[in-house]
């Protein structure tokens, strides 16, 4: 008999499990990048980190096309059979996307600049595993089953750690080995998920998923893809305007300071977007307002901690790490922490806007943020090098925060007007 996905967990346990899961994912992702800087010379590490950035780009596109849409859309379904159909359609869609991504990446590796993408070939075979395992986490998050997501991520991490240890023991100290270890871990996590849920991507219908979610996928996907293009462009421009060593240092500080904040933002999205969607669907404007205020207060406190930690620990840690080989990036620690703080402050507004299905608002906000940030990076890098590039990125983050807050206010007022006209949406969506 096939197992149906379990019902939602209690709030406190779900929150603890969700945060623990995201901490695990964040620490593992950060350690993968840190390990590259630890076992490789700065130039070689920079090339490996760039290959990882390309793979993160593909993973992000998968989230934009399927994962983020699923969090918002499928969360409103209450019928187990319909939920399973939607999940299978989503997994089939990500499988098709992963095959297309493999073809594109292989072309980049074959015909692109070999010096910049040489390590990429080690990650290409594992693209389906990485995307499917990532969507598996989103599937459990959509159901509020954070503990189940934690289990499959633990399997991923254990398999990746074992692979890394074996590679180091037999002397494979290369970026390719690190990328392959990541893929092996993702494969283990995906296998555990599919064996537990019996969801079969081969039975899904990608075209049906596109049809059912087209009202969300257009803007949500465009925003997510734009975000991944922005991230890839930032890395490419830093590497292009400056040096590979500067890019390695830039990514090191991002890994230590910015990435944990981004992982926290992802955790809050996974926890709160489905709830926001249900609140908005029920026209519960008071509940949505309370949630936004609470998360805003938490984000403010976390931001203070991040900036204080960077100001206090940035200098000693970077001068100690690898005998000071990355000490030259110490001046960017606090600015990147400020950028992280601004990003965290956006989370409550983004969560609410996603829950209200205002995809176009998210796209407009990200377009304005990305345009300002990239322009600031180029101007800053040409005039003041790496520190100028980072402050240019901060200018874009500030614009993004202001615009997101405005978009939230506009969407919230619209929801209030709708609640006066229509009490609430039907709790169970009919299949298309």
Automatic annotation (TrEMBL):
InterPro entries: Poly_Biosynth_Transport. The chain crosses the membrane at residues 21-41, 47-71, 92-111, 117-135, 147-170, 176-195, 216-238, 250-273, 294-314, 326-351, 363-383, 389-412. It is found in: Cell membrane. The keyword Transmembrane applies. The keyword Nucleotide-binding does not apply. Keywords: Cell membrane, Membrane, Transmembrane, Transmembrane helix. It is a multi-pass membrane protein. This is Membrane protein involved in the export of O-antigen and teichoic acid. It comes from Rugosimonospora acidiphila.
């Amino acid at each position: 008999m096939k197992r149906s996905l379990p019902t939602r967990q209690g709030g406190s346990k779900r929150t603890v499990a969700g945060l623990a899961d995201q901490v695990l994912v964040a620490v593992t992702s950060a350690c993968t990048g840190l390990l590259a800087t630890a076992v490789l010379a700065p130039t070689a590490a920079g090339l490996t980190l760039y290959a990882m950035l390309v793979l993160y780009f593909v993973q992000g596109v998968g989230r934009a096309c399927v994962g983020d849409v699923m969090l918002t859309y499928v969360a409103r379904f209450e019928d187990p059979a319909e939920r399973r159909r939607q999940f299978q359609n989503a997994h089939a869609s990500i499988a098709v996307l992963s095959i297309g991504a493999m073809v594109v990446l292989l072309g980049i590796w074959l015909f692109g600049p070999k010096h910049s993408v040489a390590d990429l070939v080690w990650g290409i075979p594992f693209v389906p595993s990485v995307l499917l395992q990532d969507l598996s986490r989103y599937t459990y998050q959509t159901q509020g089953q954070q503990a189940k997501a934690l289990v499959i991520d633990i399997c991923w991490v254990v398999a990746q750690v074992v692979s890394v240890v074996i590679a180091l023991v037999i002397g494979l100290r290369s970026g390719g080995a690190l990328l392959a270890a990541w893929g092996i871990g993702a494969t283990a996590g995906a296998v555990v998920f599919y064996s537990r849920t019996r969801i079969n991507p081969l039975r899904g219908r990608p075209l049906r998923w596109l049809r059912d979610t087209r009202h969300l996928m257009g803007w949500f996907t465009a925003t997510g893809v734009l975000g991944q293009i922005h991230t890839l462009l930032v890395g490419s421009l830093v590497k292009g305007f400056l040096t590979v060593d500067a890019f390695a240092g830039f990514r090191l500080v991002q890994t230590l300071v910015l990435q944990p904040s981004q992982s926290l933002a992802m955790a809050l999205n996974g926890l709160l977007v489905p709830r926001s969607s249900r609140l908005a669907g029920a026209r519960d404007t008071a509940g949505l307002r309370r949630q936004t205020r609470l998360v805003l207060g938490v984000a403010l406190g976390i931001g203070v901690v991040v900036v204080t930690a960077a100001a206090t620990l940035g200098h000693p840690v970077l001068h100690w790490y690898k005998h000071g080989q990355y000490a030259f990036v110490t001046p960017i620690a606090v600015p990147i922490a400020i950028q992280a703080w601004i990003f965290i402050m956006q989370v409550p507004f983004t969560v609410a806007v996603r829950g209200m299905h205002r995809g176009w608002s998210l796209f407009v906000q990200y377009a304005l943020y990305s345009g300002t940030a990239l322009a600031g990076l180029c101007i800053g890098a040409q005039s003041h090098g790496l520190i100028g590039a980072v402050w240019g990125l901060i200018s874009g983050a500030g614009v993004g925060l202001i615009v997101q807050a405005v978009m939230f206010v506009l969407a919230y007022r619209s929801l209030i007007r709708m609640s006066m006209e229509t009490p609430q949406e039907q709790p169970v969506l009919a299949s298309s």
